[in-house]
Design goal:
CATH topology of the largest domain: Aspartate Aminotransferase, domain 2
GO biological process, one term: 'de novo' NAD+ biosynthetic process from L-tryptophan
CATH class of the largest domain: Alpha Beta
Structural class: alpha/beta
CATH superfamily of the largest domain: Type I PLP-dependent aspartate aminotransferase-like (Major domain)
Main location: cytoplasm
Number of helices: 18
Organism: Petrolisthes cinctipes (Flat porcelain crab)
Radius of gyration: 25 Å
Strand order of the largest sheet: 8-14-13-12-11-9-10
Helix content: 25-40%
GO molecular function: kynureninase activity; pyridoxal phosphate binding
Subunit structure: Homodimer.
Bound molecules: pyridoxal-5'-phosphate, (2S)-2-amino-4-(2-aminophenyl)-4-oxobutanoic acid
Length: 563
Amino acid sequence: MANSVKGMEWVGRTSVHHTLKEQHLSRPCALCVVQSVQALPSVFTLPSCHGDVIKLKHHTMEAETQGNITGLKKPTPAEAIGNRGGVGGEMEKKHYNNYHQNWKAHTPSELLWEKANQQGVEVLSEEFARIMDKEDPLREFRKRFSYPKNGNLDDTDPELCDAEQESIYMCGNSLGLKPHSADQRVKEVIDSWGNKAVGTHFSPPLPAGLCDRYGRELLGKVVGADPSTVVLMNGLTVNLHLLLLSFYQPTPQRYKILIEGHSFPSDRYAMVSQVELRGYKPEEALLEVHPREGEHTIRTEDVLSVLRKEGDSIAVVCLGGVQYYTGQKFDMGTITKAAREAGCMVGWDLAHAVGNVPLHLDDWGVDFACWCTYKYLNSGPGGISGAYVNKRHEGRDTPHLKGWWSNCEDTRFDMKKTCDVAPGVDGFRISNTPPLLVCLVLASLEIFDEAGMDRLVAKQFLLTGYLELLIKAYFGSDQVKSPSAKIITPEDTNQRGCQLSLMFSFPLQKVHRELSKRGVQCDIRKPNVMRIAPAPLYNSFLDVHRFTTILSQVFELCKTEAA
Ligand SMILES: Cc1ncc(COP(=O)(O)O)c(C=O)c1O
Ligand SMILES: Nc1ccccc1C(=O)C[C@H](N)C(=O)O
């Protein structure tokens, strides 16, 4: 067992391992010790007192379970999930802060079973869902959103559900819910316009002409990036185009773009048009990576293998951080590293990743990224999108489209003939930024920040795990009685976020229609998938339980009709 990190001693720096006693530890915890150390190599591994090797990145403190180490104690599921010391208490906060060490040492279902045992209730029972909700430190956040009722929805059947009851919203992967604070934010912008007319451009609370200054700190936090490297502008696909215009610089030797075989159509169309604009045929310039025969998700090793074999002909690697169809989260750090080593530019479409999974764009060394904010970030339909350009590209002198908002803010109104292009991502802006859209992102980011990504991810781990547990228990393929629902999203929790994608033994459209009639909001994607995405900010364990109960009713109906 190493007592030192490569290049630095940690023995003797044990004064900060404050959590030791509470976590039944028998030796100093490397993670706790390292928290006090300033200068560290960028990536290194250490033993942790929680029974795992932890891989740390400088300052991010991200720990990844790597397996057990002899002699160190892995917490039992009971230790991992129990002893929270009361909802909202200090212990509970620590509990969530330490979720990587504790929670990720087990599968969600191990933890859920253990919790149910502790409470003396059936893990499949509604009572258990209610207990989980009672203990959920994020439970109050639901009240901050407009949660739709059955009676408000177009597709519900009043005979089949109570109009006054809240619907079961499983669609945060498509469109997040409206925060109540959004109304006030929009009103402020409208009122400022009404009251001050052109004066609104430079008047608080949200000066229209400077509104792209706002929210950068919080947005940077959500994607793991310096605030100066992120910006709100345009729509997602527009941003993808603007970034590719600059980062896709094909040469006769290196001209391909690597994408997922099943990439989101808008991304594909954008890349097709980009290669065509440069005079290439999509068949020769778009390189696709696919799942293996009989599999649904793409193996990291297969992406790496393409990079090894074809890396020197690839100009840009551009994948979805979380795949929209399967819900698979890519190993963005590993792929980015390998692609950059192969000399490629690396961009991520984070539409389904932002606000869903932890992101570390700066640490991973990503070149560029873009995302919409209307899914897990709850900024409203058609909300303004985000873009990221790594700081190392600040001095980059490649042609890109310009407008007056590409100009440095301090000389913008000098009205010169030539554009004094702002460094980095700011230079990619073209038009002035719409405050009506920015204020909505601000409303949501503030809630996000209060909830905290760590706590959201910790809840997500259990909430989606609970959905998985119920689906497997009721509709798993070993339930030979059929009908069945098959989850195609990876079981490995490091490879997914909120969403599970399901395939059914019954016609998808029929199942979807019947669910909608009963107040379930979820979506289907052709050819074959239903996406269910409980969002930890506003979904409850009871929502998940109600969803599976209604799904069984629908299955029963389909079975009867098929007979
Ligand atoms: C992965 C992905 N890419 C692109 C888009 C299209 O986004 P927009 O219409 O904002 O350009 C979406 C949907 O929002 C998406 O999920
Ligand atoms: N903006 C929309 C407008 C209408 C219908 C769907 C959308 C979506 O955002 C779909 C989402 N991007 C998806 O992952 O399928």
